[in-house]
Design goal:
The complex is a heterodimer. By secondary structure, chain A is an all-alpha fold. Chain A is built from 16 helices and no strands. Chain A is globular, with a radius of gyration of 23 Å. By secondary structure, chain B is α/β, with parallel strands linked by helices. Helices cover 29% and strands 20% of the residues of chain B. Chain B has 32 helices and 40 strands. Classes of the chains: A mainly alpha, B alpha/beta.
């Protein structure tokens, strides 16, 4: 994947200059707000109101407004939580791991991938908060000193979860913000109105672009990248321990942590690709986010899709190989029980769909990519559904088996989180530079002091 | 009222205040819907204050409703009563001709929990679900609160004034034109007053009516012996039991006693012990059928064939069954030959220690034959006794038909209904419009009350004095624990007024009766002893009746053997009392409605039960609504498939479809009394089931009936157990169980544990309701049950095995197993569920945030979550029922079985005060105490002499899912079956 061989395609097409990149990216935030933005934003915010309405109703009536029951104590809330956390993986992976691996093609997409991460984690964080029976005392899960003498149970994976997800959220936000500083300064420099000057002036933390500043900045960025990298692996591993450390057949497997991470990267890249396809089209920045970016992401999806597929089959193998009748039943029940429909949706979306990406023609086709990535996200949602619901609905004692169905509140709450996600995303693309200008400039040939040496090393 | 305030005159009693006419008027104005007309008084400030003062006084008094008459507590006398310390009283509850001796726990004057009276032969310390739920019925806010005259509020005094002229008139004409419908009863006082009534009004008609009665048993016995005798079974003495359509363990009379007797004959402690063998012939799968070692599926209408064939087979072996000589020998061909022969030989091999028992739904001829068979086998006096029914008010359906004729002829001008609800549950309708005065005594303003000219609220048995006689003649006094919550009169009080024109208190009436019963020397202390013990064993002699062969023959002639078996076009319809509402009397009782039926696991509904094969032939699935028609009568009911149901036999349950039951019970299910051809028929032939295309979802608590080959309930036949006593433990192999951390040793102090004997558990579900009563468990309603949110801490798992059409059943009570290595505890983020040093898995409600992770990680799924606040709709009076020692849980927290922690704590406190350790038997958990079969044992497993520690050493002991290294404190004793080798 090294980008240095001479035959590699250029990262940015159309041979832009520093000035033209600045102009193109900054101009998006400076021009008059277009009408379609207002329309989309109104729609998204309506969904946010819906989300708050649903949460209010839940708070007023109780968890019973959802479809959860005994034995299926966790339903859509936890599924949505894992789904959103999973989506939130791509950003940090692109920013941190690809940064450390010197994958310079990441520069065009990392900014909004990171933004997407933060917004997805925000959507995810709603659910652990509201899914508890008494959400007004949810702070008891935090190890804060209190007069009640409550101390938390650190053996509980839910406690680990709190730390993992919050750490991830904080570090991702910091990483994103640090990356933004030079670009915010660019916006500040270009600002013409009083408030833009003040706000961007404040946010750019006095950035002047001096040498020492760049030196410190790049070291800080590198350190944050180093800090975020283990988090990418840890956060979803920890989320998977919610399941893996329990003894429920279908949950109690050691494969879950790597399987969850692969799945998260898989779904995260699918979401980034979906959004990238829309953004580059709408803002006409196809020369910055090029087909090569999309193709690279498709390749990653193919790889992680295969990992996920391997995990699915390995679960079956282990269920058979372990000789545990409960485990064996849980897996057979997944594929052929009352939730078989969900299982086969998952298999077709997650295992079959990425196989299209073996073919260059398909993985470089915008419509195919667009549809395939949406399918992958649907499939990844169903993966969590299958894991959570099918395992719970039929466990050890057949007497307690029961079918779970969501209620309208479950469904509208999930829909509402999309509203939140898109509202935040729309605000982001309206007010902040959607492409990391400074970094993109760094990947232009003229930024490379050795560009004239190409081919000579 | 004014005088009370201005002259500072204090009332001496609640009654004085009650009797004040102005106050009465005020009370009536409390009910605006039925307010008196022409009340134009302007409420002045002064008057307002006066009335409010009185109502506050009344409210204050409601808190101390200790009965005025002296009642004697079981443990501590009232003057020593310590607030917060519960007091147990002995009382007894009438139920048809039976009596159930009870111990009722009262908390600061509020009865809160019903238990059995260990000294009483009908309960032997245990109870059943119905008896448990009576405490909820007591506090039912829907109970009738006012005397109603033509559905307008009246008073008891007005009724007395109304009755006086009528009374004089009937005295003159000897009661011509007067009729009484009463419930069956063996109450000495009621019988005495009935005698008084009949003496005053010899021309009146007295009808004893009960929609679900043992009348056919009584008549059958009379036909065979010529005497009025009541059977008293000694099932514990029977090595072989053949039940012919008799659910003697659940829905027949005296089921609590029979459960205990059956279990005593089945309990086994070592491979050397023997156990009884149960044969069951029945149509609908009953609890008794579920315990059978051999069960023959037979339509109820064919059971007479079976009984006749059995008699003929016994004749073949020279055990002559009197009265069956003229039976057609070919009848034997109509039943399974091998089965019949094996049963007959088994009975003969155990002659004198076997028992044939027939259910109340069977015809007079069957009961006559069964008596004759038991006589031939020499069982009378050993496994069954007969008691002379002297004076008992026995049900007689023919009298009701005669009454209807009289009413239609306008020969009746006054009808008194003493309890019961004939306008709902009698298949013949007496036209109340044709009767001038109809007086109905009832606890609810029900279907009959609404049609009556007078409704008198009836007291609950816990509110009024009375007395009862058990089926084997043991007498008890029903002593009240609380003043009538809603006013009301007892049946004896009303009857005394009717018979004598005088209003006397039940206390005096009962004491008058007992003047004759108890020895005159030191009567008062004998009376106190009866109140204290709850029983008085009058000397009862059982009789060994002679069999009148011609009587049996005549019965067979009137009720001949049915020759044509039911078919697809001519289905058999069998009526059963419901396990939820019995005959409809518990229609407003949420605990019972939500307690799953032991076999179908349905709640909140009745359904038409059919066999899978019949359903297939008729193209029916679960929840399909069908039109059941028989002649011109029809009812719409959803279908439910029950494996083990006889083909072409449809079972429906009584007691549903009430229109005036109350908030809870109205419009639930369908009334099937209307399908009956006569007032006491249980089996109808010629029914047709037609699909309507509609569906009505039924709420079942167990969707899956197969164990999927998992070793959950472990069972073996007796022979195998004798060869491999440890068979249950050997059923699961697993690698050595190792823990990740050093385990707590639990080797000091009390270590609580439980063991449940699956061999004697009959699956009745009494424990579920007892637990609900003890632990303030809410009901959640049909919709929530359908979504798997029922709150029961202990549930009865029921699994089918074997042939789908003729399955075997197992029952398994399942509550929190109190695992030492509890999976629920490690996953709770806030440590809301933790272990204590005595091995209890505790649930700290206050700390719970409601993640539900503990439930997900519980392999038994016995944790229950408060999805809503189930206490928002609890009405004020219902709060009185709650056990003050158990927290009422709010929304959003998890709850589960605590091993009745409050009882453990009380026992420990008491022991500490007395300076001794808690001893085995100091206390029982609620489920243990209620269990009719004594299948649950609880105690300190570290005490080698405790019953539970001994049972834990039983070779049949095993833990469910012990391979998960749970170290559960609740373990089970494996089930055994005792099949006849001839039928293996």
């Amino acid at each position: 994947m090294s980008q240095t061989p001479t035959k590699a395609e250029p990262l940015i097409l159309g041979n832009p200059t520093f000035a033209s990149i600045t102009e193109q990216v900054s101009e998006i935030t400076e021009r008059k707000t277009p009408l379609p933005w207002y329309i989309l934003f109104t729609m998204s915010v309506s969904l946010v109101m819906l989300l708050f309405g649903m949460i209010g109703y839940l708070l007023f009536k109780g968890i019973g407004v959802w479809g959860v029951n005994i034995p299926v104590g966790w339903g859509w809330a936890i599924i949505n939580f894992v789904f959103w956390v999973g989506i939130g993986h791509a950003g940090t992976l692109i920013s941190a791991i690809l940064f450390l691996l010197r994958q310079r093609w990441r520069t065009s997409i990392n900014r909004f991938a990171e933004a997407m991460t933060i917004f997805a984690v925000m959507c995810a964080l709603i659910f652990p908060g509201i899914h508890v029976g008494r959400m007004w005392v949810v702070y008891w899960m935090f190890p804060v000193p209190n007069q009640m003498g409550i101390w938390q149970n650190f053996r509980s994976p839910l406690e680990w979860d709190i730390f993992a997800v919050f750490t991830y959220f904080l570090v991702s936000s910091m990483f994103w913000f640090v990356g933004l500083i030079p670009d915010l300064a660019t916006l500040r420099d270009r600002a013409k109105t009083f408030w833009r000057k003040k706000i961007f002036g404040f946010l750019s933390l006095g950035w002047r672009g001096g040498n020492r500043q760049w030196k410190h900045y790049e070291l800080a960025y590198l350190l944050l990248a180093g800090l975020s990298t283990p988090l990418v692996l840890s956060v979803h591993s920890v989320v998977s321990t919610d399941f893996a450390t329990s003894q429920l057949p279908g949950w109690h497997t050691t494969i879950l942590p790597p399987y969850f991470v692969a799945g998260a990267v898989f779904s995260g890249f699918a979401m980034v690709t979906t959004l990238a396809i829309i953004v580059r089209r709408v803002f006409k920045i196809e020369h910055i986010i090029t087909m090569r970016h999309l193709e690279n992401m498709a390749k990653i999806m193919l790889a992680t899709g295969l990992m996920v597929g391997y995990a699915y089959s390995m679960e079956f193998f282990m269920a058979w190989y372990s000789g545990n009748i409960y485990e064996r039943f849980a897996l057979i029940n997944r594929a052929f029980g009352p939730y078989a429909w969900a299982y086969w949706i998952m298999i077709s979306c997650n295992v079959l769909t990425p196989q299209l990406f073996w073919f260059k023609k398909l993985r470089t086709s915008i419509p195919v990519l667009f549809i395939a990535t949406i399918f992958i996200n649907i499939g990844m949602w169903f993966e969590r559904f299958v894991i959570v619901v099918s395992s719970l609905s039929r466990d050890f004692l057949p007497s307690s088996w029961a079918y779970y169905s969501p209620t309208w509140v479950d469904i509208l709450t999930f829909v509402g989180t999309f509203g939140l996600f898109f509202s935040l995303f729309l605000l982001f693309i309206r007010f902040l530079p959607i492409v990391a200008m400074a970094e993109v400039k760094g990947s232009l040939p003229e930024a490379d002091p050795h560009s004239h040496d190409h081919g000579k090393h | 009222m004014k005088t009370i305030i201005t002259n500072k005159e204090y009332w001496k009693s609640l009654e004085q205040l009650d009797a004040d006419p102005e106050f009465q008027k005020f009370l009536r104005n409390e009910f605006p819907g039925v307010a008196d007309e022409g009340q134009s008084d302007v409420v002045t400030r002064r008057k307002f204050l006066t009335l409010m003062g009185a109502s506050f006084a009344l409210a204050g008094l409601a808190g101390c409703r200790r009965p005025v008459e002296k009642i004697v507590p079981f443990v501590v006398s009232p003057e020593e009563a310590v607030p917060g310390v519960p007091v147990d009283y002995r009382t007894a509850m009438p139920f048809g001709n039976s009596a159930h001796g009870l111990t009722v726990r009262s908390f600061d004057g509020r009865p809160i929990k019903i238990e059995g009276n260990p000294l009483h032969p009908s309960t032997m310390g245990a109870t059943n679900a119905f008896l448990q739920a009576e405490i909820l019925g007591l506090y039912d806010p829907d109970r009738s609160t006012l005397v109603l005259k033509e559905n307008k509020p009246g008073t008891w005094e007005e009724f007395i004034v109304f009755w006086q002229p009528l009374f004089s008139q009937f005295l003159v004409n000897s009661g011509e034109g007067m009729a009484v419908i009463s419930c069956p009863s063996s109450s000495p006082t009621l019988i005495r007053l009935q005698g008084l009534f009949k003496r005053s009004f010899p021309k009146s008609r007295w009808v004893v009516y009960d929609p679900v009665s043992d009348e056919q048993i009584h008549i059958g016995v009379k036909a065979a012996t010529g005497r009025n005798l009541l059977p008293v079974y000694h099932i514990e003495n029977a090595k072989v039991i053949a039940a012919l359509d008799s659910d003697f363990l659940a829905l027949e009379s005296e089921s609590v006693r029979h459960g205990r007797q059956f279990a005593d004959g089945r309990r086994i402690h070592s491979p050397e012990d023997s156990m009884n063998r149960l044969y069951v012939v029945e149509s609908a799968l009953s609890l008794t059928g579920s315990m059978a070692d051999h069960r023959l599926r037979l339509p109820s209408s064919r059971v007479e064939n079976f009984a006749a064939a059995l008699a003929l087979t016994l004749n073949d072996f020279n055990f002559f069954v009197a009265g069956t000589e003229e039976l057609d020998a070919s009848i034997r061909q109509t039943v399974d030959q091998k089965w019949l022969k094996a049963l007959a030989q088994d009975l003969i091999a155990h002659a004198g220690e076997c028992l044939v028992i027939a259910g109340r739904s069977q015809s007079i001829a069957v009961h006559a034959m069964v008596l004759s068979i038991n006589k031939a086998l020499g069982n009378i006096g050993k496994t069954v006794d007969y008691r002379e029914a002297t004076g008992d008010l026995l049900p007689d359906a023919s009298e009701l038909a005669k009454l209807k004729y009289d009413v239609d002829q306008k020969k009746v001008n006054t009808l008194i209904v003493l309890g019961g609800n004939p306008l709902y549950d009698a298949s013949i309708t007496i036209d109340f419009a044709k009767i001038e005065n109809t007086i109905h005594l009832s606890t609810y303003v029900d279907e009959t009350s609404q049609q009556s000219t007078w409704h008198i609220p009836q007291t609950h048995f816990l509110e009024a004095w009375g007395d009862v006689s058990s089926v084997d003649g043991v007498l008890s006094v029903t002593q009240p624990l609380i003043q009538p919550l809603y006013g009301g009169k007892s049946d004896v009080e009303l009857l005394h007024l009717l018979a004598t024109g005088q209003d006397r208190r039940g206390y005096e009436l009962v004491r008058d009766t007992w003047q004759e019963i108890l020895p005159q020397t030191d009567w008062e202390s004998a009376w106190r002893r009866v109140l204290h013990d709850g029983v008085f064993s009058a000397p009862v002699t059982f009789v060994v009746p002679e069999i009148l062969g011609e009587g049996v023959m005549r019965a067979l002639k009137y009720y001949p053997v049915e020759t044509v078996p039911p078919s697809k076009e001519r289905l058999e319809l069998v009526f059963k009392p419901s396990s939820h509402v019995y005959d409809g009397r518990y229609a407003n009782n949420g605990w019972l409605l939500e307690n799953p039926d032991p076999i179908t696991k349905l709640t909140w509904d009745n359904a038409a039960l059919v066999s899978p094969l019949t359903a297939q032939e008729l193209g029916l699935k679960n929840n399909d609504v069908v039109r059941i028609s028989i002649g011109e009568k029809a009812a719409l009911l959803p279908v439910w498939l029950v494996p083990g149901q006889a083909d072409y036999s449809v079972t429906v349950q009584f007691g549903f479809g009430r229109k005036a039951a109350g908030h809870v019970g109205n419009r639930i299910g369908e009334n099937v009394y209307t399908l009956r051809s006569t007032v006491n028929s249980f089996i109808e032939l010629g029914a047709v089931l037609a699909k309507t295309g509609k569906r009505r979802e039924l709420a079942s608590t167990q969707e899956h009936g197969s164990m999927e080959g998992r070793p959950i309930v472990r069972e073996a036949v007796l022979e195998e157990y004798r060869r491999h006593p440890e068979f249950a433990k050997e059923m699961v192999e697993h690698p050595p169980l190792k823990s990740l951390w050093t385990e707590f040793t639990y080797d000091k102090g009390y270590q609580w544990g439980m063991i449940i004997d699956l061999n004697t558990c009959i699956g009745c579900g009494a424990c579920t309701v007892a637990c609900q009563s003890e632990n303030n468990i809410p009901i959640v309603g049909k919709k929530q049950v359908a979504n798997g949110r029922e709150m029961h801490w202990i549930r009865l798992d029921r699994y089918f095995s074997g042939d789908q059409n003729d399955p075997q059943l197992v029952h398994q009570p399942m509550a929190c197993q109190h695992c030492e290595m509890a999976p629920c505890e490690s996953v709770c983020p806030v440590s809301a569920t933790v272990h204590d040093s005595e091995g209890l898995n505790l649930m700290v409600y206050n700390r719970c945030v409601g993640t539900r992770y503990c439930s997900n990680n519980c392999p038994f799924k016995v944790r229950r979550f408060n999805f809503f606040n189930y206490y928002t709709q609890v009405r004020e009076v219902e709060k009185l029922q709650k056990n003050p020692n158990v927290t009422v849980r709010s929304r959003g927290v998890m709850e589960k079985c605590t091993y009745c922690l409050q009882r453990i704590s009380q026992a420990k406190e008491k022991a500490q005060q007395e300076g001794r350790p808690v001893q085995d038997g100091d206390f029982q958990t609620a489920c243990q105490q209620v269990c009719p079969t004594r299948s649950i044992t609880f105690g300190n497993i570290l005490d080698p002499d405790s019953a539970v520690a001994k049972l834990k050493k039983d070779p049949r002991e095993y833990g469910v899912l012990s391979e998960l290294n749970l170290k559960a404190r609740t373990t089970y004793l494996a089930k055994l079956r005792n099949p006849n080798p001839e039928l293996a």
